[in-house]
TrEMBL record:
Gene3D superfamilies: Spore Coat Polysaccharide Biosynthesis Protein SpsA, Chain A (3.90.550.10). This is Streptomycin biosynthesis protein StrF domain-containing protein. It comes from Limosilactobacillus secaliphilus. Pfam families: Glyco_tranf_2_5. Residues 9-184 form the Streptomycin biosynthesis protein StrF domain. The lineage of its organism: Bacteria, Bacillati, Bacillota, Bacilli, Lactobacillales. It comes from the Bacteria.
Amino acid sequence: MMESNLFSLITIVNKENVYEDFKNNLRTQKGVNYELIKVNNDHNQFSSAREAYNHAFKKSHGNYVVFLHPDMRFLDKYALRDVLDQVTKLPNLGVAGISGCLFKLHHHKSTVVSTIVHGDPAHRFGQAIKQPTKVQTVDECLFVMDRDFCQQHPFSDIDGWHMYAVEQCLVALLNGKVNYVVPCRMWHRSTGFSENWQYIQTGKEIVRRYGKHFSSINTTVTTWNTRSKLSLLLIAPLKLVKHTLWRKLHLA
């Protein structure tokens, strides 16, 4: 039951004005029992999202833990309730998100499924879904794990600010769990990707650690072909450049 569950909402804050807007929007949400945990990183107190989230989790009390960006916005007063209500009913939950990638590739590319809108002006990105859908990985903008899974599988020691939800999804799959994307009514105000070449280094490390278990690692940014050294050296970075240029042109 939603009423009996406490949800711990954890967000990392670099810009106070963005966080204040987030809090004002969060106050409009009805039908959710939550605690909000702010992780200050305005002076680079943490070297990675993984470190920051592990730190914050120790302060949490929720049955479920919601990790989300402070530029997420809820489009009506029951948007958060309806997402979390779906999450509590998912069987064998590993990680649930509101945007993510299917296992199967389409023309050698990841298929993104989501109902969120991105950017300003807001636009849709990916294939819309009408019900919870099994995926390989979810996006970092908002994802949920239950408390037991968080305790058993804390975030790893990989540095930086990328692919931490992706990694948790891979860990979940290797432990027999199922990952999902659920429909939502939410707006991610950023374009959903930071142009940071550290992403490539993180991706290579993810492939090094988990690639032997998966023929590809599919993310909302690019597809990592784990069976090809050429892919790791060249193809994934080129896809990243193409993806970045596409976003710039699309949002211009």
